[in-house]
Amino acid sequence: MLNWLKSDSVESKEILAAVTGVQLAQELLQRLTGQDKVDAYKRECIHAVAAYVKNNPRASQGEINKEVEKQVLLFAARVQALESAPLF
């Protein structure tokens, strides 16, 4: 975009149009596949486990394992729900 603003040439406009098209296509693909939501759910799962460990420094390995299992099952259920949800 900076190149187009500086030169205002046809070639710069075409490059800007191509880059914008690729960005739109990528966004559409992420929305259709739900990958952006899967990534968000994954981050939430990791943060929840980290928060549990931080807030429970004396938790036994069994308790930590139980919390990890709970968070992974929640993550899996949320992803499963995405698969069965309508696209629009």
Automatic annotation (TrEMBL):
This is Uncharacterized protein.
